[in-house]
Amino acid sequence: MEVHHHSHHPKSWKEYVQEFLMLFFAVFLGFMAEYYLEYRAERHKEHDYLVSMKEDLKADLVEIDRGIMGMEKIKSVGQRLEKLLYKPAWSDNEIDSIYILSLNLSATLIKPNFATGTIDQLKNAGGFRLIKNQEIVHKISAYEKWKQTILLQEESNSHNWRNIHLLQNKLLHVTTLGLPEKLNDIRLDKAELERIQKSTGSKFLTSDKKTLYEYANYIWVQRGYVAYYEIMVKMEQQQAKELIKLIEEELEH
Length: 253
Known about the structure:
Blueprint: H1 13-85, H2 92-107, H3 117-124, H4 134-171, H5 190-200, H6 209-252
């Protein structure tokens, strides 16, 4: 019985080239598809970071506006209080005003609570590399750097506030000030203050003018700190507005 062998013709070089090209393009297209998916994922993350950063900046602007209102109040209240403290004598109403203004001074909030959520993610997750617009990256960095400078100024403010509180405790019968039930709830128990006056002969803990003038000095210093702090915060406010505009332009592309 005859055995028939199938003959295999050797492939031509064209067939080898064709198979190579098919394999190459298959691998290349797979690589491109994976690259495109990764690219789209990164652009989606970039978009999310920019949207989130924009919202944080808007929240910062609200906080800055609130802080500036407090700073203006402190400068105004402080100036009125200084003038009263330097008077040679006071009426009962003026003494009541010293108490109320002192409480207003120490109870007013000026520190903006800056949002940190997005910037923390950008730092910890390496998100900065995803932001293609380098001008945005530089402005975010500058914004954060200036924020740290503001925090240093806050330390100076806090140190002087402590001195003001110490002098208030030396001068005022703080037990006559009612505990607040809500923000800006400033109350003075005038009947209790009059009772203390009848009992001690004075509405103040001390009649030493030097202590009163020292208190006025610390208030003046605090007004100076707050004025400088306000300038710094307004600079940060301007940076936030510029950064929001830049991010919005990038998101529109």
